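Letters spell out the chain; backbone shape is given numerically. Take this protein:
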Amino acid sequence: MKKEDLKNWTRDMLKDKILYQEALLEQRNKDIEIISKRAKELNDENDSVKAENASLKQRIKDLEDICDGSCFANETDDRDEKIAKMQDRIDSDCVRINRLKVTINTLVDMYGLLRNQVGMD
């Protein structure tokens, strides 16, 4: 929308448009807040899983030191499959978080452009 287009608008039409955009912005801000909370939860969960993983690696290292590495076979078992599945889940969560961050940035840019078009900046 250009300034020339606004010449034909009435004051009430502009107020209605601004109120609509404010309501839309408020809803998007709520959505962003929900997404941000979920992203924080996933990051916290990821940190706790990383800490648990580090603890388990240290425990394995300690056990290998005790039995000179002969205690563990090189065969794969259910744990290896579960670890692979969890890693895939973590990777997909990270991809989702990145997509959500891009969405947030896009919404902020769109809001700025809208404010410029309406003449609020």
Notes: Helices lie at 3-6, 11-67, 78-118. The chain has three helices and no strands. The chain has a mean pLDDT of 86.
